[in-house]
Specification:
2 domains; 126 residues
Amino acid sequence: MTSGDKDVRALDALNAERAADDAERAVNEAPTAAERAQVERLKARTAELLESQRATVRESLVDSARQRAAKPVPASILGMARDAVLARLREVMAAEPELALQFRELDELSDDDLRRLLADVEEQRG
């Protein structure tokens, strides 16, 4: 065994001991104020990223609805009140859960966008 091998083994043993000590401390000690602050910063950053992704999806949905605006919305849907459109969309989402994942923020869409969305969903369902 060379001197270099002994050094590597000694370093590995020290690292293993340090890791065991760190693990024991993590289990037995309460988090420090700095650790709690770091967790709160990470939570806030995660919330920011999630909201950013939601905003992107909402923008995409609205853009998509506007692009389809040239397609006429059936008179039966045009005559529906906002509550009726929302109720019908939620009914469809209950029957097809994969749609619920895409359209969680329905309340933020305009009445016209909701009607176009319902027309598109109904058209795709056949």
